[in-house]
Structures are given as C-alpha cells and as structure tokens.
Amino acid sequence: MRMVIIMGLLVLIGFVIVAIGYSAEQAALRAEATEARAASQIFAKTLKTQLVAAIKTDGPVGAISVCQQIAPAISAQYSTHGLHIGRTALKLRNPANAPDAWERSVLEGFVAAMAKGVDPAALERYAFFSNKNGGKTFRYMKAISVGQSCLACHGRNLAPAVQDSIRQNYPEDQATGFALGDLRGAFTVQKKIAASSR
Ligand code: HEC
Predict the structure, then answer these.
(1) Which of 52, 115, 122, 140 has its CA 20 to 30 A from that of 196?
(2) Dist CA 59 CA 65 (whole Å)
C-alpha cells in the first residue's frame, strides 16, 4: 500500500514539474507575442501615415517609390533590436516578400478563418521553433486587411498612370483586384533566441 502511495506521489510530482515547465513556456511565448504585436502595430501605423502623406503631396504614382523604400527602412530599423519584421502575402507585388512554408500555411489559415466570418483584426499566429544549435526562433504573424487608403494601388480600378508604374517596377505583380476588407497579407516577425538565454 505504501508503495502505491509513493508511486502515486512521484507521478503527481512529475505532472506538476511538466505543468510548471509548460506554463513558463506559455508565459515566454506570450511575452514575445506582446513585443511582436507592438512592433507590427508601429510598422502599420508608420507606413500608413507616410503613405497617406506621400499620396497627398505626390499622388499615388509618386507614392509607389515611397512605399518601395519606406517598408524596408522600417523593417531595417526594427532588425537592430534582434527582431526582424517584414510583410508577406499570397498574392504578391514584390517577389522578395514571398512567404516560406510556415508563412504560407498561416496565410491560408487566415483566409479560411475570414471565410467563416472572423474579423481579420483579430487574426494572429505565433509559436517557438527549435533550432539545430539548441536555441529557438520565435515567429509571429498578424493579418493585414485592405483599407480605403490601399485601394489606389491594390484595388480593382487603378488609375492608368498607377497601373503603368506598377507594371514597370513590378512586372510580376499579382497584388491588385482587392476589395475593402479583403486579406491583403500579413506582418511577419522573427526573433532568434539563443540557447543560453533560456
Ligand atoms: C502608393 C501605392 C500603394 C499604396 C497606397 C499601398 N501600397 Fe501596398 N504596396 C505597394 C508597393 C509598391 C509594394 C511593394 C513594396 C516592396 O517593393 O516591398 C506594396 C507591397 C505591399 C505588401 C507586401 C507584400 C507584397 O505584395 O509585396 C503589403 C502587405 C501591402 N503592400 C499592403 C498594403 C496595405 C494594407 C495598404 C493600405 C494601408 C497598401 N499596401 C497601400 C504600393 C502601395
């Protein structure tokens, strides 16, 4: 009988240790997600403010080159904090923004969720991935939907001059024909976490 009680206690202690480990992992994951979410929001806000300003002063054709340069500049600014942030999509304008396998599956998940009526503003996904060197990579994605200010360059009826400029700069462009509220793509964040810091 005593043996059974001891065995039972050992199993219980085992469960508790696993549960503590799991909740520590979940807390670390949530902390990374909070940082990545904030970075995505700043990226979105900065880009939108500058785009709207550029359209106002230079018109949509002039703003195309601004968009080309601003997005990588904001991305570079954040990369200095050990965080890499970019944008990706299923229908691409710049092939350099192509999704990898995980990003593609997340984007497809966002499309499926939106088809069921989920608000894109609520769509995000994040996870830790183990690296070969024993460290981890945190990855985060947040859905980007099409707003009014996007339609001049991603909508159905582009001004001919905008159409021409896009065709010239992005001969393989697939990123037009969107309607208000469609999924345009996602912010995508990666952060490497060294084995020693965990
Ligand atoms: C002035 C034209 C213009 C406007 C307005 C515009 N975009 Fe873009 N968009 C571009 C260009 C040009 C690129 C390619 C940038 C690059 O080379 O990385 C792009 C790329 C993107 C990408 C990256 C994926 C890809 O296809 O390469 C996303 C996501 C995106 N735009 C979303 C938006 C959203 C959301 C809005 C509205 C808030 C918006 N854009 C407004 C011109 C525009």
Answers:
(1) 140
(2) 11
**15-68 per-position pLDDT tens digit:** 888 888 878 888 999 999 999 999 999 889 988 888 889 999 988 888 888 778
The whole-angstrom separation of Cα 88 and Cα 80 is 20
Q: Sign (positive/negative) of CA torsion 87, 93, 97, 103?
A: positive
Query: In which residue are the tokens 């396998």 written?
Result: 101
C-beta 163 within 6 A of ligand 1: no
Burial of 39 per CB tally in 10 Å (0-12, 13-18, 19+)? buried
Mean residue pLDDT of the chain comes to: 90
- Pocket flag, ligand 1, residue 51 (CB < 6 Å): yes
Retrieve residue 151's tokens: 């339609």
Residue minimizing CA distance to atom 21 of ligand 1: 93
The two structure tokens encoding residue 175: 């990123």
Which atom of ligand 1 is closest in space to residue 47's alpha carbon?
A: 38
Angle at 152 between CA 147 and CA 158, to 5 degrees: 135
Tokens 């992005």 locate to: 170
Compute the distance from residue 153 Cα to the ligand 1 centre, in Å: 7
Write down the number of H helices and E strands in the chain: 4, 4
